[in-house]
Design brief:
With 274 residues, the protein is α+β, with helices and mostly antiparallel strands. The chain has a domain of 175 residues: Sortase (Sortase, Chain: A, Beta Barrel). The protein is built from 4 helices and 10 strands, in the order αββαββββαββαββ. The radius of gyration is 25 Å and the shape is globular.
Length: 274
């Protein structure tokens, strides 16, 4: 009888312990689900804001002279869609706006660019000034706001839902780059500036890649050679001492300090509507 009592007591303790473990597991699951729902709700709010902004300020038009016909290769023609951006409307919402960035592919990258007094302001603040982990696409505070520097940096978060600069990770492969080698920046003076990607790099945040200013042409050429030397693949695109480049920067989400850089060189400029 005593032995049976001990067995029942042992089973009772085991059942209590199992129940406690189960309750803890359920609690962890509920808390994780709550946090996950909160994160994606915030993502959705950010997406809705930027979609609304695009609807309000962008008028599109097909640019015939930018059609890339590859009939001889048996591929369908690609047509670039030029944007007409109402910067007056944008300024009424946020006077820090300095441009608009657009990729034909991935189409998701279609955002206003802002420039704050420092590089922290727009890390967790949207274009409309709302607190959100999506933040904004923003120019380095040390660059000239008209993209006239030899190397202008533009930053954006690598969001898990692919928003902001999350789509830049597609350019890690040469195949994707070859199909989509250009991006465009629209400026408040009515210009569309075309950039051709010449290097895609994964570097540390302390890398020489983040140099903005140069004391001589030789120093700048050394920098360009360095960029090409650390690139993931050779694009064959030429750059020189007179090149103006825009460097798009985002996290890799692999380590805290690792960054993905997509460097584009200015290859054309047109006045929208002419």
């Amino acid at each position: 009888m005593k032995e049976n009592g001990r067995r029942r007591g042992g089973r009772r303790k085991t059942n209590v312990a199992s129940t406690i473990v189960l309750v803890i597991a359920i609690g962890v699951f509920v808390f994780s689900a709550y946090k996950l729902i909160g994160i994606y709700t915030e993502y959705r709010k950010g997406d809705k804001e930027y979609d609304h902004i695009a609807e309000e300020v962008i008028e599109t038009q097909i640019s015939e002279n930018s059609e890339q016909t590859k009939e001889e290769e048996g591929e369908p023609a690609k047509v670039h869609t030029t944007l007409k951006v109402d910067f007056d409307k944008l300024r009424k919402t946020n006077g820090d706006v300095v441009g608009w960035i657009q990729f034909d592919e991935p189409k998701k990258i279609n955002y206003p660019i802002v420039k704050g007094s420092d590089n922290d302001k727009y890390l967790t603040r949207t274009f409309e000034g709302k607190k959100n982990s999506s933040g904004s696409i923003f120019m380095d505070a040390g660059n000239e706001g008209d993209f006239s520097d030899s190397n202008t940096f533009v930053y954006g978060h690598n969001m898990k839902n692919g928003s902001m600069f999350g789509q830049l990770r597609k350019f890690k492969t040469k195949e994707y780059y070859e199909q989509n080698p250009y991006f465009y920046i629209y400026t408040p003076d009515g210009k569309e500036v075309k950039y051709q990607i010449f290097a895609v790099c994964i570097v540390e945040d302390t890398s020489k890649s983040y140099t903005r200013f140069f004391n001589s042409d030789e120093e700048y050429l050394d920098y360009l050679d360095y960029i090409k030397s650390v690139a993931r693949f050779d694009t064959g695109v030429e750059v020189n001492a007179g090149s103006q480049i825009v460097s798009l920067s985002t996290c890799t989400n692999v380590t805290e300090t690792q960054r993905l850089l997509v460097h584009g060189v200015k290859v054309g400029e047109t006045v929208v509507g002419e």
